[in-house]
Design brief:
Length: 105
Protein backbone atom coordinates (compact mmCIF):
# COMPACT_ATOMS: atom_id res chain seq x y z
CA UNK A 1 0.00 0.00 0.00
CA UNK A 2 2.84 2.42 0.80
CA UNK A 3 4.28 1.81 -2.66
CA UNK A 4 0.92 2.71 -4.19
CA UNK A 5 0.70 5.87 -2.08
CA UNK A 6 4.25 6.72 -3.01
CA UNK A 7 3.48 6.43 -6.71
CA UNK A 8 0.35 8.54 -6.35
CA UNK A 9 1.72 11.26 -4.08
CA UNK A 10 5.33 11.69 -5.23
CA UNK A 11 6.65 12.41 -8.70
CA UNK A 12 10.39 12.33 -9.28
CA UNK A 13 11.82 15.56 -10.68
CA UNK A 14 15.46 16.66 -11.05
CA UNK A 15 15.24 18.83 -7.89
CA UNK A 16 13.76 16.00 -5.72
CA UNK A 17 10.08 15.05 -5.62
CA UNK A 18 6.84 16.89 -6.20
CA UNK A 19 4.54 15.94 -3.32
CA UNK A 20 0.80 16.02 -3.90
CA UNK A 21 -0.67 16.76 -0.48
CA UNK A 22 -3.86 14.91 0.50
CA UNK A 23 -6.88 17.19 0.24
CA UNK A 24 -9.26 16.85 3.21
CA UNK A 25 -12.06 18.47 1.20
CA UNK A 26 -13.91 17.11 -1.80
CA UNK A 27 -13.73 20.46 -3.51
CA UNK A 28 -10.81 22.80 -3.40
CA UNK A 29 -7.43 23.15 -4.92
CA UNK A 30 -4.75 20.51 -4.67
CA UNK A 31 -1.47 21.60 -3.13
CA UNK A 32 1.92 20.52 -4.45
CA UNK A 33 5.26 20.87 -2.67
CA UNK A 34 8.85 20.26 -3.70
CA UNK A 35 10.48 17.89 -1.18
CA UNK A 36 13.78 16.05 -0.85
CA UNK A 37 14.37 12.35 -0.08
CA UNK A 38 14.42 12.82 3.72
CA UNK A 39 11.18 14.83 3.67
CA UNK A 40 9.59 12.22 1.43
CA UNK A 41 10.48 9.45 3.90
CA UNK A 42 9.03 11.42 6.82
CA UNK A 43 5.87 12.27 4.91
CA UNK A 44 5.30 8.62 3.94
CA UNK A 45 5.77 7.55 7.57
CA UNK A 46 3.20 10.08 8.80
CA UNK A 47 0.71 9.26 6.05
CA UNK A 48 1.06 5.50 6.63
CA UNK A 49 0.66 5.86 10.41
CA UNK A 50 -2.38 8.10 9.98
CA UNK A 51 -3.95 5.67 7.51
CA UNK A 52 -3.47 2.78 9.94
CA UNK A 53 -5.00 4.80 12.77
CA UNK A 54 -8.00 5.71 10.61
CA UNK A 55 -8.39 2.05 9.65
CA UNK A 56 -8.41 0.84 13.27
CA UNK A 57 -10.76 3.57 14.47
CA UNK A 58 -13.14 2.82 11.61
CA UNK A 59 -12.90 -0.91 12.33
CA UNK A 60 -13.67 -0.34 16.04
CA UNK A 61 -16.63 1.90 15.26
CA UNK A 62 -18.10 -0.53 12.74
CA UNK A 63 -17.59 -3.49 15.08
CA UNK A 64 -19.22 -1.61 17.95
CA UNK A 65 -22.12 -0.53 15.76
CA UNK A 66 -22.60 -4.07 14.51
CA UNK A 67 -22.56 -5.45 18.05
CA UNK A 68 -25.03 -2.81 19.23
CA UNK A 69 -27.33 -3.51 16.28
CA UNK A 70 -27.19 -7.24 17.01
CA UNK A 71 -28.03 -6.62 20.69
CA UNK A 72 -30.90 -4.30 19.69
CA UNK A 73 -32.22 -6.93 17.29
CA UNK A 74 -32.16 -9.55 20.07
CA UNK A 75 -33.97 -7.16 22.43
CA UNK A 76 -36.63 -6.54 19.78
CA UNK A 77 -37.12 -10.29 19.34
CA UNK A 78 -37.54 -10.73 23.10
CA UNK A 79 -39.97 -7.80 23.32
CA UNK A 80 -41.91 -9.23 20.40
CA UNK A 81 -42.19 -12.59 22.16
CA UNK A 82 -43.40 -10.92 25.36
CA UNK A 83 -45.97 -8.87 23.44
CA UNK A 84 -47.20 -11.97 21.59
CA UNK A 85 -47.74 -13.80 24.90
CA UNK A 86 -49.68 -10.80 26.24
CA UNK A 87 -51.81 -10.69 23.08
CA UNK A 88 -52.51 -14.41 23.41
CA UNK A 89 -53.53 -13.94 27.07
CA UNK A 90 -55.87 -11.08 26.15
CA UNK A 91 -57.40 -13.17 23.32
CA UNK A 92 -58.10 -15.99 25.72
CA UNK A 93 -59.72 -13.56 28.16
CA UNK A 94 -61.87 -12.16 25.34
CA UNK A 95 -62.86 -15.70 24.29
CA UNK A 96 -63.80 -16.53 27.89
CA UNK A 97 -65.87 -13.34 28.18
CA UNK A 98 -67.61 -14.06 24.87
CA UNK A 99 -68.46 -17.58 26.06
CA UNK A 100 -69.80 -16.17 29.33
CA UNK A 101 -71.92 -13.59 27.45
CA UNK A 102 -73.42 -16.35 25.25
CA UNK A 103 -74.25 -18.35 28.36
CA UNK A 104 -76.03 -15.40 29.95
CA UNK A 105 -78.21 -14.71 26.87
Amino acid sequence: MADNREAIMFKKVPEGYVFRAPNPWVLGRIRFYLVNEAQKTKLLAVITARSQAVFWVTFAVLTGTSTAARAESEAIKQDSAVLQREIDAIRSQVDALQTEIKTIR
